[in-house]
Design a protein that fits this description.
This protein is mostly beta strands. It is built from 4 helices and 29 strands. The longest helix has 11 residues.
């Protein structure tokens, strides 16, 4: 049977097979946006009509023998519409969630899934749903609190990192996204934007789970919010770093972060309109390991090293932000400084009386040094 090549990217194999008489053999996606479809010659007319109705063009017959006819369009972001209850899905519109995910995996690059509840409520059923590449979930911007989206218990999502204009209710009793192990440079930032709202309804569950010594960065943008007492992040191991920031008028409610001792939890409020609740009873000590307010740095308020402002999420000056950072990196605010490197500090490290220095090179009598004289000089270090 002959092979026919068409330029297209968003039509699923199942949809073609439903419209064209069998037998139908559909080849894999090429390096450009095209597919090779093998059908009986008598089915060519039906195939042409169906593809033309979707706006996709026929390229060549037996393209293996005529490679110069290959398509030259680059693969871009795959855009899909999830519309439950749609009786006649076409092109990139799906009423069945599993078919949508299967089609998304054919796209070489990001996917954007738009949730449309105009015919029936949107819900993600139980199962493991992997989108292959970091993808985006979007809702209707006309909703003041986002398109309602229910995540059923047992549903796990992989490779989705941005959520916009969605009113998410999770019924999960475990987790929806398991944060992968890695470093901050290798892992994505999970972003919640627009009017996205998250509510945890399933007992014992959370949206994001950190079960490895990894780095989790979450940013709440615009009007997004996490409803109080909804477990949003749950860290179950030591050695992890969790950073949650809010900007615009975003709101991280109280008791939305849980974790164990031995991991670091940082809350960042990027501007005065945002809210990051310091009350997190699920964390060791009932609050963040460090709280940073960085919006006021632009106010050009002079920093005074002799003044100590306890770092808190309610602080309104750069003084508190810088003090919090100094405490975080192990420097004593308005007091002695402890530094470390390999070798002797004498003639190298600038310090003042009372400062401490430890040499990573070690050795008897050459590991600990105390600055006994000379303010803001690099001499006066005495080995102990």
């Amino acid at each position: 049977m002959p092979v026919y090549r068409y330029i297209f990217d968003l039509v699923t194999d199942a949809l073609i097979a439903n419209q064209v008489p069998p037998p139908v053999t559909i080849g894999g996606m090429g390096p450009d946006i095209y597919k090779d479809i093998t059908v009986d010659v008598s089915s060519k007319g039906a195939l042409d009509s169906f593809m033309a109705s979707l706006g996709y063009s026929y390229v060549s017959t037996d393209p293996v023998l005529s490679p110069s006819h290959q398509a030259t369009i680059s693969v871009g972001i795959g855009q899909f519409i999830f519309r439950p209850g749609e009786p006649n899905p076409k092109a990139n519109t799906y009423a069945d969630w599993s078919q949508l995910v299967a089609s998304a995996l054919l796209i070489d690059g990001q996917n954007l899934v738009y949730f449309d509840d105009s015919l029936a409520p949107c819900s993600i059923p139980a199962g493991v749903w992997d989108f292959g590449s970091p993808s985006l979930f979007w809702g209707n911007t006309q909703y003041p609190s986002g398109t309602p989206l229910t995540i059923d218990d047992g549903a796990t999502i992989l490779n989705v990192t941005r959520f916009q204009n969605l009113n998410i209710t999770s019924n999960s009793t475990t987790f929806v996204i398991d944060v992968p192990p890695g470093t901050s440079t290798a892992l994505p930032v999970y972003a919640f934007d627009g009017f996205t709202t998250f509510t945890q309804a399933g007992a014992g569950g959370s949206f994001l789970r950190v079960a490895a010594a990894t780095v989790l960065n979450v940013t709440l943008l615009a009007n997004s919010r996490v409803v109080a007492n909804s477990k949003f992040i749950n860290t179950t191991v030591a050695g992890a770093q969790v950073v949650v920031s809010a900007s615009g008028t975003a709101n991280l409610g109280s008791n939305t972060i849980a974790g164990v001792a031995g991991s670091t939890y940082v809350g960042v409020r990027a501007n005065a309109g945002a809210t990051v609740s310091a009350t997190q009873t699920g964390l060791p000590g009932g609050t963040f390991s460090a709280a940073i307010v960085n919006s006021e740095l632009a106010a050009n308020v002079a920093y005074n090293d002799a003044t100590v402002t306890p770092p808190s999420l309610g602080a309104t000056t750069s003084q508190a932000a810088i003090d919090a950072l100094k405490l975080k990196i192990g420097k004593n605010v308005a007091g002695a400084v402890w530094s470390s490197a390999a070798g002797s500090p004498e003639g190298v490290i600038v310090g003042s009386p009372g400062d401490l220095y430890t040499s990573t090179a070690g050795g008897a009598g050459t590991t600990l040094y105390v600055k006994e004289s000379g303010a803001a000089t690099n001499t006066g270090w005495i080995a102990k």
